[in-house]
Write a structure and sequence with these properties.
heterodimer, A: mainly alpha, 2 domains, 10 helices, 0% strand, globular, B: alpha/beta, Rossmann fold, four-stranded antiparallel beta sheet, 9 strands, 25% strand
Chain lengths: 263, 210
Amino acid sequence: MVTYDISLEGMFFSFFLLIIPVLISYYLDLKLISSTLESALRMVLQLLLVGVFLTFVFDLNNPVLNIVWVLVMVFVASHTVLKNAELKTQNLLPLLTIFMAVTNYTMLLYFNKFIIDLTDLFDARYFIPIAGMVLGNSLKANVIGMDNFCNEIQRNENRYLFRLSMGAEKIEALVPYLRKSIRVALKPTIANMATIGIVFLPGMMTGQILAGASPLVAIKYQIAIMLAIYVTTMVNVLLGVFVLIYRGFDEYGMFKKEMLRSS
Amino acid sequence: MGLLDIQNLSVSYDGKSILSDFNFSILKGEKILIKGNSGIGKSTLFRMIMGFGKYNSGEIYLEGVPVDADNIWDIRKKVAYVSQDTDIAEGKVSDLIDEVFSFKANRNNNGKSDLEKLLNRLSLSPDLVNKEYMKLSGGEKQRVVLVLALLSGKDIFLLDEVTSELDTGLKQKVVDIFFDNPQWTVLAISHDREWETKAMKVIDFSGRVN
């Protein structure tokens, strides 16, 4: 089976679709036109660069380079999480990057060793795309989790202060917020897992089938990757909120509002 | 030196002065009422004592120990602070009580055995604990929070408008509970005259110029 290449004309038609969000944004005054176009442009440039770069990485297939590239991915993901959760990066980025790197490398090695049983655990063809899928999902959940934690602690600050007044340690007083953020952050992933295959065909499965793999192989990969995504996402969200608990409060246990971008 | 000493305390937020050069002292066992219009720094004073906000200058001492980052966690375990904001929990009242008693600092506290007695004394039915906290009336919430503060086993109380939503009879009951124990040190903010009649000292913030 051959995957059909997309012609230049076909790519044009794919961009043509952007007219719809631009028109909707214009008529409803959503102020999304420039960010839509900017994001689309960024996507094109990034994918072009990554396309060139990955061809090079895959040809070389050097373990050190693969590991470093995943670290770059983790760094960018951590940065994006903080930016989208409206947090300043300086205090939180190093710790979040370290935490996310540890969970993601561990999961990748586990996946390649025990699930796929690869001889070369750092094989670029597996190491990098799987890292991308796991990270991409963790990223979304982490934005929700960290954003929710910061919002709740501000909106319901009195509940936190009440617990402190009742003799709670910082962590004891924050557990309810932690619980809530994790639950909220994991909801989309749980819903995804429950409806997969029926409501939507995930990208990886579609990709594998398009590339000619049998649907059964594609399904096995999909199941394994969903489970890996779920576990990594949960651990990453937990660690993300821990970074906030550890770095986001002053020595009196008060939330540092100066961490927020809006301050 | 008193039990709580405040020296030259100045607090300002966004350039607006809330408290300036405030001095205050309370002895063990004293019951003092703070009154005055809203928005003139009464609640701020309590928040400063609990370490819930930063002050610009001055000093606060509790039992001679400065209220600073090192000591604040111990101070919070000694002082029962009841804020006027009663939106403090979700879920059932019993979950709230269990949570408070699950904190490390309260695990050895057997005050919970007095729960029923206290509920009764404040005219709350014992099955109130099975209700959703957020569905209680304002007056019921105030009493639940007071019950928690009273069960804490602490003997220093900072009470911020804790009787505002109670009827006269209940206001008197609450005031009596706090005044009947000679060991307890009570600093209360209130507009209710039940406090004013019994208070040993009244500090009126209205006359203060900030």
